[in-house]
Amino acid sequence: MANVVMYTSAACPFCINAERLLVSKGVKDINKIRIDLQPDKRDEMMQKTGRRTVPQIYINACHIGGFDDLRALDQAGGLDPLLAE
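Below the sequence we write its predicted structure tokens.
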């Protein structure tokens, strides 16, 4: 199974939806980096992604983007092959 990393925060509905989608695809382990608990990780996220919003999702070190990007990737048929790598 793929290595999934997600920058997230506790009260983010998009983060919850992203996690639900990933779990529905069989992902059992998501490395969650909580930017609300570790403010220095927000700076790290912004430097890596150029974005300020969560979630920011990586699959196998490939930046996917946020929930809308993840959902679009799934609808285009690209998520399953990426998770299978």
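The mean pLDDT is 96.
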